[in-house]
Protein backbone atom coordinates (compact mmCIF):
# COMPACT_ATOMS: atom_id res chain seq x y z
CA UNK A 1 0.00 0.00 0.00
CA UNK A 2 1.14 3.56 -0.77
CA UNK A 3 1.82 6.10 1.95
CA UNK A 4 1.98 9.88 1.58
CA UNK A 5 3.52 12.51 3.81
CA UNK A 6 2.12 16.03 3.70
CA UNK A 7 5.21 18.06 4.56
CA UNK A 8 5.95 21.69 5.45
CA UNK A 9 2.46 22.39 6.80
CA UNK A 10 2.49 25.92 8.20
CA UNK A 11 -0.35 25.23 10.63
CA UNK A 12 -2.15 21.91 11.07
CA UNK A 13 -5.55 21.94 12.76
CA UNK A 14 -5.95 18.36 14.00
CA UNK A 15 -9.21 18.54 15.93
CA UNK A 16 -7.55 16.65 18.78
CA UNK A 17 -8.44 18.48 22.03
CA UNK A 18 -5.06 17.56 23.51
CA UNK A 19 -3.10 18.92 20.55
CA UNK A 20 -5.53 20.92 18.46
CA UNK A 21 -2.97 22.89 16.48
CA UNK A 22 0.54 22.03 15.36
CA UNK A 23 2.77 24.69 13.79
CA UNK A 24 5.46 23.58 11.34
CA UNK A 25 3.80 20.20 10.95
CA UNK A 26 3.69 17.09 8.82
CA UNK A 27 1.06 14.39 8.42
CA UNK A 28 1.34 10.86 7.05
CA UNK A 29 -1.49 9.03 5.31
CA UNK A 30 -1.65 5.33 4.48
CA UNK A 31 -4.52 3.30 3.05
CA UNK A 32 -6.90 6.24 3.32
CA UNK A 33 -6.23 6.88 7.02
CA UNK A 34 -4.05 9.21 9.06
CA UNK A 35 -1.22 7.19 10.59
CA UNK A 36 1.04 9.93 12.01
CA UNK A 37 1.03 13.65 12.81
CA UNK A 38 3.80 15.74 14.28
CA UNK A 39 6.56 18.21 13.54
CA UNK A 40 7.91 18.56 10.03
CA UNK A 41 11.18 16.66 9.72
CA UNK A 42 10.21 14.11 12.36
CA UNK A 43 7.92 12.02 10.15
CA UNK A 44 8.70 8.31 9.70
CA UNK A 45 8.91 8.65 5.92
CA UNK A 46 6.53 7.67 3.15
CA UNK A 47 6.39 6.57 -0.48
CA UNK A 48 5.22 9.96 -1.72
CA UNK A 49 5.67 13.50 -0.48
CA UNK A 50 3.36 16.51 -0.88
CA UNK A 51 4.98 19.87 -0.17
CA UNK A 52 2.29 22.05 1.41
CA UNK A 53 4.55 25.09 1.21
CA UNK A 54 3.76 26.62 4.59
CA UNK A 55 0.00 26.61 4.08
CA UNK A 56 -2.66 25.64 6.59
CA UNK A 57 -4.27 22.20 6.60
CA UNK A 58 -7.65 21.48 8.21
CA UNK A 59 -9.91 18.43 8.21
CA UNK A 60 -12.48 18.19 5.46
CA UNK A 61 -15.63 20.05 6.45
CA UNK A 62 -18.56 17.96 7.69
CA UNK A 63 -21.84 19.46 6.46
CA UNK A 64 -24.44 17.76 8.62
CA UNK A 65 -27.56 19.49 7.26
CA UNK A 66 -28.35 19.85 3.56
CA UNK A 67 -31.35 19.47 1.23
CA UNK A 68 -29.77 18.71 -2.14
CA UNK A 69 -32.34 16.61 -4.01
CA UNK A 70 -34.76 19.06 -5.58
CA UNK A 71 -35.78 20.79 -8.77
CA UNK A 72 -36.86 24.31 -9.55
CA UNK A 73 -35.90 27.81 -8.57
CA UNK A 74 -37.11 30.19 -5.87
CA UNK A 75 -35.47 33.44 -6.89
CA UNK A 76 -38.85 35.20 -6.83
CA UNK A 77 -39.28 34.26 -3.18
CA UNK A 78 -35.76 35.45 -2.38
CA UNK A 79 -36.38 38.76 -4.14
CA UNK A 80 -39.61 39.23 -2.17
CA UNK A 81 -37.77 38.63 1.10
CA UNK A 82 -35.10 41.12 0.15
CA UNK A 83 -37.96 43.56 -0.45
CA UNK A 84 -39.21 43.10 3.09
CA UNK A 85 -41.53 40.08 3.06
CA UNK A 86 -41.22 37.75 6.05
CA UNK A 87 -39.99 34.16 5.66
CA UNK A 88 -42.66 31.61 6.63
CA UNK A 89 -41.37 28.37 4.98
CA UNK A 90 -44.41 28.34 2.69
CA UNK A 91 -42.21 28.20 -0.41
CA UNK A 92 -41.30 24.58 0.36
CA UNK A 93 -44.47 23.55 -1.48
CA UNK A 94 -43.22 25.34 -4.62
CA UNK A 95 -40.12 23.15 -4.61
CA UNK A 96 -42.25 20.07 -3.94
CA UNK A 97 -44.24 20.70 -7.11
CA UNK A 98 -41.10 21.10 -9.22
CA UNK A 99 -39.39 18.09 -7.65
CA UNK A 100 -42.34 15.81 -8.28
CA UNK A 101 -42.33 16.85 -11.94
CA UNK A 102 -38.60 16.23 -12.42
CA UNK A 103 -37.11 12.98 -13.70
CA UNK A 104 -34.65 10.86 -11.74
CA UNK A 105 -31.77 11.80 -14.10
CA UNK A 106 -32.60 15.48 -13.67
CA UNK A 107 -32.67 15.23 -9.88
CA UNK A 108 -29.49 13.16 -9.79
CA UNK A 109 -27.67 15.65 -12.03
CA UNK A 110 -28.69 18.56 -9.81
CA UNK A 111 -27.57 16.74 -6.69
CA UNK A 112 -24.24 15.81 -8.30
CA UNK A 113 -23.60 19.44 -9.22
CA UNK A 114 -24.18 20.61 -5.66
CA UNK A 115 -22.05 17.83 -4.15
CA UNK A 116 -19.26 18.84 -6.54
CA UNK A 117 -19.61 22.48 -5.46
CA UNK A 118 -19.34 21.43 -1.84
CA UNK A 119 -16.29 19.27 -2.45
CA UNK A 120 -14.52 22.12 -4.25
CA UNK A 121 -15.08 24.24 -1.13
CA UNK A 122 -13.68 21.63 1.22
CA UNK A 123 -16.73 19.58 2.24
CA UNK A 124 -15.81 15.90 2.29
CA UNK A 125 -18.77 14.58 4.29
CA UNK A 126 -22.35 15.70 3.63
CA UNK A 127 -25.75 14.73 4.97
CA UNK A 128 -28.60 14.84 2.45
CA UNK A 129 -32.31 14.95 3.34
CA UNK A 130 -35.42 14.09 1.41
CA UNK A 131 -38.44 16.31 1.99
CA UNK A 132 -39.31 17.75 -1.41
CA UNK A 133 -41.32 14.78 -2.65
CA UNK A 134 -43.93 14.27 0.10
CA UNK A 135 -45.48 11.24 -1.60
CA UNK A 136 -44.43 7.68 -0.91
CA UNK A 137 -42.75 7.21 -4.28
CA UNK A 138 -41.23 10.70 -4.52
CA UNK A 139 -39.69 10.51 -1.06
CA UNK A 140 -38.33 7.04 -1.80
CA UNK A 141 -36.73 8.07 -5.08
CA UNK A 142 -35.21 11.21 -3.54
CA UNK A 143 -33.57 9.13 -0.83
CA UNK A 144 -32.38 6.55 -3.33
CA UNK A 145 -30.72 9.36 -5.29
CA UNK A 146 -29.18 10.80 -2.12
CA UNK A 147 -27.81 7.40 -1.14
CA UNK A 148 -25.79 7.46 -4.35
CA UNK A 149 -23.79 10.39 -2.95
CA UNK A 150 -23.56 9.78 0.81
CA UNK A 151 -24.29 7.26 3.51
CA UNK A 152 -25.64 10.11 5.66
CA UNK A 153 -29.19 10.21 4.30
CA UNK A 154 -32.20 11.51 6.21
CA UNK A 155 -35.88 10.71 5.79
CA UNK A 156 -37.73 14.05 6.01
CA UNK A 157 -41.19 13.09 4.82
CA UNK A 158 -42.33 15.39 7.64
CA UNK A 159 -41.05 18.59 6.04
CA UNK A 160 -44.48 20.20 5.66
CA UNK A 161 -48.00 18.90 5.11
CA UNK A 162 -48.43 18.89 1.32
CA UNK A 163 -51.29 20.89 -0.14
CA UNK A 164 -52.89 17.75 -1.59
CA UNK A 165 -53.09 15.90 1.76
CA UNK A 166 -56.59 15.20 3.07
CA UNK A 167 -55.57 16.49 6.51
CA UNK A 168 -52.50 16.87 8.68
CA UNK A 169 -53.41 13.78 10.71
CA UNK A 170 -53.94 11.75 7.54
CA UNK A 171 -50.53 12.81 6.26
CA UNK A 172 -48.86 11.92 9.56
CA UNK A 173 -50.33 8.42 9.21
CA UNK A 174 -48.76 8.18 5.76
CA UNK A 175 -45.40 9.46 7.02
CA UNK A 176 -45.34 6.94 9.86
CA UNK A 177 -46.76 4.12 7.76
CA UNK A 178 -46.25 3.26 4.10
CA UNK A 179 -43.90 6.17 3.39
CA UNK A 180 -41.60 5.21 6.25
CA UNK A 181 -41.61 1.58 5.12
CA UNK A 182 -40.62 2.61 1.59
CA UNK A 183 -37.95 5.08 2.70
CA UNK A 184 -36.27 3.43 5.68
CA UNK A 185 -34.07 1.11 3.55
CA UNK A 186 -32.42 4.20 2.00
CA UNK A 187 -32.05 6.32 5.17
CA UNK A 188 -29.91 6.42 8.29
CA UNK A 189 -31.79 9.26 9.99
CA UNK A 190 -35.35 10.47 10.54
CA UNK A 191 -36.10 14.19 10.82
CA UNK A 192 -39.14 16.41 11.31
CA UNK A 193 -39.80 20.12 10.87
CA UNK A 194 -41.21 20.78 14.35
CA UNK A 195 -42.45 24.31 13.82
CA UNK A 196 -45.58 26.38 13.56
CA UNK A 197 -47.11 25.81 10.15
CA UNK A 198 -45.49 22.38 9.92
CA UNK A 199 -45.75 19.73 12.70
CA UNK A 200 -46.57 20.23 16.36
CA UNK A 201 -44.92 18.48 19.29
CA UNK A 202 -47.28 15.50 19.41
CA UNK A 203 -47.11 14.92 15.66
CA UNK A 204 -43.33 15.30 15.69
CA UNK A 205 -42.94 12.87 18.58
CA UNK A 206 -45.10 10.31 16.77
CA UNK A 207 -43.09 10.65 13.56
CA UNK A 208 -39.70 10.43 15.24
CA UNK A 209 -40.75 7.52 17.44
CA UNK A 210 -41.98 5.60 14.40
CA UNK A 211 -38.69 6.27 12.65
CA UNK A 212 -36.70 5.02 15.63
CA UNK A 213 -38.80 1.84 15.72
CA UNK A 214 -37.91 1.36 12.04
CA UNK A 215 -34.21 1.53 12.91
CA UNK A 216 -33.53 5.17 12.08
CA UNK A 217 -31.76 7.71 14.30
CA UNK A 218 -33.56 10.97 15.21
CA UNK A 219 -32.69 14.59 14.49
CA UNK A 220 -34.98 17.63 14.59
CA UNK A 221 -35.54 20.90 12.74
CA UNK A 222 -36.07 22.98 15.88
CA UNK A 223 -36.90 26.54 16.92
CA UNK A 224 -36.18 28.24 13.60
CA UNK A 225 -39.18 30.53 13.21
CA UNK A 226 -39.82 31.16 16.89
CA UNK A 227 -39.80 29.59 20.33
CA UNK A 228 -41.36 26.16 20.27
CA UNK A 229 -41.14 22.54 21.40
CA UNK A 230 -38.48 21.31 18.95
CA UNK A 231 -35.38 21.63 21.11
CA UNK A 232 -37.06 20.07 24.14
CA UNK A 233 -38.36 17.23 21.98
CA UNK A 234 -34.85 16.62 20.62
CA UNK A 235 -33.57 16.36 24.19
CA UNK A 236 -36.46 14.14 25.28
CA UNK A 237 -35.83 11.64 22.47
CA UNK A 238 -32.02 11.77 22.61
CA UNK A 239 -31.72 13.15 19.10
CA UNK A 240 -28.25 13.51 17.65
CA UNK A 241 -28.89 17.15 16.85
CA UNK A 242 -31.37 19.99 17.01
CA UNK A 243 -30.93 22.07 13.89
CA UNK A 244 -31.45 25.86 13.47
CA UNK A 245 -31.87 26.72 17.21
CA UNK A 246 -32.50 30.35 16.32
CA UNK A 247 -34.99 31.01 19.14
CA UNK A 248 -34.07 29.18 22.35
CA UNK A 249 -35.23 29.69 25.93
CA UNK A 250 -32.93 29.06 28.88
CA UNK A 251 -34.80 25.78 29.44
CA UNK A 252 -34.10 24.76 25.83
CA UNK A 253 -30.38 25.41 26.21
CA UNK A 254 -30.22 23.55 29.51
CA UNK A 255 -32.08 20.58 28.02
CA UNK A 256 -29.75 20.37 25.01
CA UNK A 257 -26.71 20.47 27.28
CA UNK A 258 -28.06 17.86 29.70
CA UNK A 259 -29.07 15.46 26.93
CA UNK A 260 -25.87 15.88 24.90
CA UNK A 261 -27.78 17.03 21.81
CA UNK A 262 -25.63 18.89 19.28
CA UNK A 263 -26.95 22.33 18.29
CA UNK A 264 -26.45 22.57 14.53
CA UNK A 265 -26.45 26.22 13.52
CA UNK A 266 -27.24 27.24 9.95
CA UNK A 267 -26.10 30.83 9.41
CA UNK A 268 -26.87 30.72 5.70
CA UNK A 269 -30.56 30.54 6.60
CA UNK A 270 -30.42 33.66 8.76
CA UNK A 271 -28.43 35.44 6.04
CA UNK A 272 -30.95 34.53 3.35
CA UNK A 273 -34.09 35.20 5.38
CA UNK A 274 -32.92 38.29 7.26
CA UNK A 275 -33.67 36.55 10.53
CA UNK A 276 -31.82 37.05 13.82
CA UNK A 277 -28.75 34.87 14.23
CA UNK A 278 -28.60 32.38 17.11
CA UNK A 279 -26.20 33.11 19.95
CA UNK A 280 -23.53 30.43 19.64
CA UNK A 281 -21.60 31.85 22.59
CA UNK A 282 -24.57 31.21 24.88
CA UNK A 283 -24.70 27.58 23.76
CA UNK A 284 -20.98 26.97 24.21
CA UNK A 285 -20.95 28.52 27.65
CA UNK A 286 -23.78 26.17 28.66
CA UNK A 287 -21.76 23.16 27.53
CA UNK A 288 -23.62 22.46 24.29
CA UNK A 289 -21.63 21.11 21.35
CA UNK A 290 -22.12 23.38 18.33
CA UNK A 291 -21.99 22.34 14.70
CA UNK A 292 -22.12 24.50 11.59
CA UNK A 293 -23.80 23.42 8.38
CA UNK A 294 -24.98 25.07 5.16
CA UNK A 295 -28.67 24.05 5.13
CA UNK A 296 -28.18 24.14 1.35
CA UNK A 297 -31.66 24.32 -0.18
CA UNK A 298 -33.33 26.36 -2.92
CA UNK A 299 -35.46 28.49 -0.63
CA UNK A 300 -33.97 29.65 2.64
CA UNK A 301 -30.21 29.01 2.27
CA UNK A 302 -28.99 28.40 -1.26
CA UNK A 303 -25.30 28.20 -0.41
CA UNK A 304 -23.02 25.18 -0.68
CA UNK A 305 -20.09 26.93 1.00
CA UNK A 306 -18.92 25.91 4.45
CA UNK A 307 -16.21 28.62 4.39
CA UNK A 308 -18.98 31.19 3.96
CA UNK A 309 -20.81 29.71 6.95
CA UNK A 310 -17.61 29.83 9.00
CA UNK A 311 -17.23 33.53 8.20
CA UNK A 312 -20.86 34.25 9.10
CA UNK A 313 -20.56 32.37 12.38
CA UNK A 314 -17.54 34.43 13.38
CA UNK A 315 -19.09 37.74 12.33
CA UNK A 316 -22.68 37.18 13.49
CA UNK A 317 -22.86 34.33 16.02
CA UNK A 318 -20.10 35.14 18.46
CA UNK A 319 -17.70 32.33 17.60
CA UNK A 320 -13.95 32.77 17.42
CA UNK A 321 -12.29 31.55 14.20
CA UNK A 322 -11.02 28.48 16.07
CA UNK A 323 -14.48 27.69 17.45
CA UNK A 324 -16.05 28.11 14.02
CA UNK A 325 -13.59 25.72 12.36
CA UNK A 326 -14.12 23.29 15.23
CA UNK A 327 -17.89 23.49 14.67
CA UNK A 328 -17.54 23.01 10.91
CA UNK A 329 -15.44 19.86 11.33
CA UNK A 330 -15.68 18.03 14.65
CA UNK A 331 -19.05 19.60 15.47
CA UNK A 332 -20.54 18.31 12.24
CA UNK A 333 -19.06 14.89 12.91
CA UNK A 334 -20.66 14.86 16.37
CA UNK A 335 -24.01 15.81 14.84
CA UNK A 336 -23.70 12.72 12.62
CA UNK A 337 -22.32 10.61 15.47
CA UNK A 338 -19.17 9.97 13.49
CA UNK A 339 -15.70 9.52 14.98
CA UNK A 340 -13.86 8.79 11.74
CA UNK A 341 -14.28 12.24 10.14
CA UNK A 342 -13.97 15.86 11.27
CA UNK A 343 -10.44 15.48 12.65
CA UNK A 344 -6.93 14.65 11.47
CA UNK A 345 -5.91 12.29 14.25
CA UNK A 346 -4.33 8.86 13.99
CA UNK A 347 -6.93 6.42 12.68
CA UNK A 348 -9.21 9.09 11.23
CA UNK A 349 -10.19 9.10 7.59
CA UNK A 350 -7.64 11.09 5.61
CA UNK A 351 -10.02 13.84 4.48
CA UNK A 352 -8.07 17.08 4.46
CA UNK A 353 -8.17 20.55 2.99
CA UNK A 354 -5.12 22.59 2.07
CA UNK A 355 -5.92 26.29 2.37
CA UNK A 356 -4.08 28.87 0.30
CA UNK A 357 -3.45 30.75 3.52
CA UNK A 358 -1.15 30.40 6.53
CA UNK A 359 -4.02 29.94 9.00
CA UNK A 360 -7.68 28.89 9.17
CA UNK A 361 -8.37 32.39 10.55
CA UNK A 362 -8.32 33.55 6.93
CA UNK A 363 -11.61 31.72 6.33
CA UNK A 364 -13.29 34.49 8.33
CA UNK A 365 -10.66 37.17 7.77
CA UNK A 366 -11.03 36.96 3.95
CA UNK A 367 -14.72 36.10 3.42
CA UNK A 368 -15.75 35.19 -0.09
CA UNK A 369 -12.19 34.52 -1.26
CA UNK A 370 -11.65 31.00 -2.72
CA UNK A 371 -9.02 29.83 -0.24
CA UNK A 372 -9.48 26.07 -0.73
CA UNK A 373 -6.44 25.09 -2.79
CA UNK A 374 -6.65 21.28 -2.63
CA UNK A 375 -9.07 18.72 -1.20
CA UNK A 376 -7.99 15.17 -0.38
CA UNK A 377 -10.56 12.50 0.40
CA UNK A 378 -9.52 9.21 1.96
CA UNK A 379 -5.93 10.05 1.12
CA UNK A 380 -6.55 10.74 -2.57
CA UNK A 381 -6.58 14.07 -4.32
CA UNK A 382 -10.21 14.97 -5.08
CA UNK A 383 -9.86 18.65 -6.07
Explained architecture:
Strand 10, helix 7 and strand 11 form a beta-alpha-beta unit. The chain has helices at 75-82, 92-101, 104-120, 136-147, 168-176, 178-183, 201-213, 230-237, 250-259, 267-273, 280-285, 306-316, 321-335, 362-365; strands at residues 3-13, 21-30, 33-39, 48-51, 56-59, 61-63, 123-126, 128-129, 153-158, 189-194, 217-218, 220-222, 241-244, 262-265, 290-292, 352-355, 372-377, 380-381. The chain is of the alpha/beta class. It starts with a strand and ends with a strand. Helix 3 (104-120) packs across helix 4, helix 5 packs parallel to helix 7 and helix 12 crosses helix 13.
From the structure above, extract its key features:
alpha/beta; 383 residues; single chain; 14 helices
Would you summarize the structure shown here?
By secondary structure, the chain is an alpha/beta fold. It is 36% helix and 22% strand. Strands 1, 2, 3, 4, 5, 16, 17 and 18 form an 8-stranded mixed beta sheet that branches. Strands 8, 9, 10, 11, 12, 13, 14 and 15 form an 8-stranded parallel beta sheet that branches.
Question: Layout of SSEs?
Answer:
Blueprint: E1 3-13, E2 21-30, E3 33-39, E4 48-51, E5 56-59, E6 61-63, H1 75-82, H2 92-101, H3 104-120, E7 123-126, E8 128-129, H4 136-147, E9 153-158, H5 168-176, H6 178-183, E10 189-194, H7 201-213, E11 217-218, E12 220-222, H8 230-237, E13 241-244, H9 250-259, E14 262-265, H10 267-273, H11 280-285, E15 290-292, H12 306-316, H13 321-335, E16 352-355, H14 362-365, E17 372-377, E18 380-381
Parallel strand pairs: 1-4, 1-5, 6-7, 8-9, 9-10, 10-11, 10-12, 12-13, 13-14, 14-15
Antiparallel strand pairs: 1-2, 2-3, 5-16, 16-17, 17-18
Helix pairs in contact: 3-4, 5-7, 8-9, 12-13
Amino acid sequence: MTSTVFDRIGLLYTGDPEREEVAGAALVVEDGRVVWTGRAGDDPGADERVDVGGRCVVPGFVDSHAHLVFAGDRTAEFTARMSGERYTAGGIRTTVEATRAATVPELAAGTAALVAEMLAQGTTTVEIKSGYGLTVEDERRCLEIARGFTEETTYLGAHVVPSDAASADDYVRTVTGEMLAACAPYARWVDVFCERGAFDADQSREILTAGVKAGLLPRVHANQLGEGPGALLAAELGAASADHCTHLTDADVEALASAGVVATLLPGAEFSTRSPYPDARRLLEAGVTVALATDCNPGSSFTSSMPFCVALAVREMGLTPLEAVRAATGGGAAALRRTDVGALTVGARADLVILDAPSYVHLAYRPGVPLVLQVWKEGRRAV
